[in-house]
Amino acid sequence: MGAWQVWVVAALVLLVAEMFAAGFWLACVAVGSLAAALVAAVLPGFLAPVLAFSATTVLSLVALRPFLLHHLHRAPHVRTNVEALIGKTGIVSERIDPVTRQGRVVVDGEDWRGAAVDDIAVEPGARVMVLRVEGTTLFVEKEP
Q1: N or C: which end of the chain has fewer CB within 10 A?
Q2: Cα angle at 139 between 136 and 141, to 5 degrees?
Q3: Which DSSP symbol is given to 122?
Q4: Cα separation of 37 and 12, whole Å?
Q5: Residues 66 and 86 grouped into a single domain
Q6: Range of the domain at 35
Q7: Is 67 helix (H, G, I), strand (E, B) or coil?
Q8: Model confidence over 31-73: pLDDT tens digits?
Q9: Rounded to whole angstroms, how far apart are CA atoms 90 and 46?
Q10: What are phi and psi for residue 106, nearest 5 degrees?
Q11: Among candidate residues 45, 72, 99, the one where a domain is terminated
């Protein structure tokens, strides 16, 4: 078995081991092993593949690992708290006055202070959609 084949086998073993480990450490070492395999296939000797392995492993730890961690371990944005109310439908429980733009709205079983974004009165029982939240006030518009 040639030296380049040993490096390729090492890279494959490291990639399989990466499946059971976390953090992309072994994957970066596998990249270094693949670089060493390429160098060993072209240049005879021991020193050139070891230097290629070392340099490529360090470079992949510095450049590739942060990229992989950022793009593959990114959690999806989950709207929580009042941010989750935006876009939901509610029922007006107390008339929203066009002058003061104040009233009450029930969304998901919770009673909130409501304000209309346009200058029309919204009567109790009307369905409204939440457009934005400021403090404890839901700014709503009447659904058609």
Answers
A1: C
A2: 150
A3: B
A4: 12
A5: no
A6: 3-72
A7: helix
A8: 999 999 999 999 989 999 999 999 999 999 999 889 888 888 7
A9: 72
A10: -105, 120
A11: 72
